[in-house]
Write a structure and sequence with these properties.
Elements lengths: L1 E2 L5 E2 L5 E2 L3 E5 L5 H16 L6 E5 L4 E4 L15 E3 L6 E4 L3 E7 L9 H18 L5 E3 L2 E7 L5 E12 L2 E9 L19 E2 L11 H21 L4
Parallel strand pairs: 4-5, 6-7, 12-14
Antiparallel strand pairs: 1-4, 2-3, 5-9, 6-8, 9-13, 10-11, 11-12, 12-13
Helix pairs in contact: 2-3
Length: 232
């Protein structure tokens, strides 16, 4: 079961852009099925045959390998390993983690990949802020970070993006209440000196519907920012 609605935004030159599809799948989606769907959608967007999409979903447990994945960082392949084609190294996806796949047409939004990634991070940070989580970027470390119960920096969200013909694929993964032990099978994103956090591990009562609502509240600001706003 999925839900959809239609925000509005404008392009870099101020003209109206068709609203991206807002899709939320409540049932878990097989990673390979989702990847094929996302790639097909990106190809259709680049050919002018489909509109943009923001797709929220969960996967069954799986490890994915980005283009910079180091085999030495696969410590225990207890789940299937899938070559993802996105940037980055190994990451884990599984139940309790909100995946946000972004099929966005940067041809209409200024062709600024750095701005897209920066604003994607900001979108997640703003949504987590609504839930009472102080999240932040960390210099030299990709992803979304927060402080755990002991005051140590820990990763609560991963960012991995691919751009093909100026259409984006993949996006963000936000830890709501996954089994954090599943992350110990890999060196997450190649970073071994920091832990992994989730809303649940922080003692935060918010769950998937609350996160989805927070993402939706900040969605239009994200779309506007990737269209014509300089980074700050």
């Amino acid at each position: 079961m999925s839900s959809r609605c239609t925000p509005t935004t404008t392009s870099e030159d101020g003209s109206a852009l068709p609203a991206p599809e807002w899709r939320i799948d409540r049932e878990r989606v097989d990673y390979a099925v989702a990847l094929a769907d996302m790639e097909a959608r990106a190809a259709a967007i680049s050919q002018g045959e489909a509109g943009e999409r923001l797709w929220l979903l969960e996967h069954p447990p799986i490890y994915t390998a980005g283009t910079s994945a180091d085999p030495a960082e696969m410590l225990d392949a207890r789940f299937p390993v899938h070559i993802a084609g996105r940037g980055g190294r190994y990451t884990y996806h599984g139940p309790g983690q909100r995946i946000v796949y972004c099929n966005i047409n940067l041809n209409a939004r200024g062709k600024d990949v750095r701005n897209f990634v920066h604003r994607l991070e900001g979108w997640v940070i703003a949504a987590l802020g609504d839930l009472g989580v102080e999240a932040f970027r960390a210099e030299g470390r990709i992803g979304i970070w927060t402080l755990d119960g002991q005051g140590r920096e820990a990763k609560i969200g991963a960012i991995g993006v691919r751009v093909r013909r100026w259409v984006t694929l993949h996006g963000a993964a936000i830890n709501v209440d996954p089994d954090l032990n599943h992350f110990t099978g890999i060196v997450p994103c190649g970073i071994s000196d920091y832990g992994v956090a989730s809303l649940a591990s922080l003692g935060n009562p918010a769950r998937m519907p609350e996160l989805d609502a927070a993402l939706e509240r900040h969605r239009d600001a994200f779309l506007d920012a990737i269209s014509h706003c300089p980074r700050s």
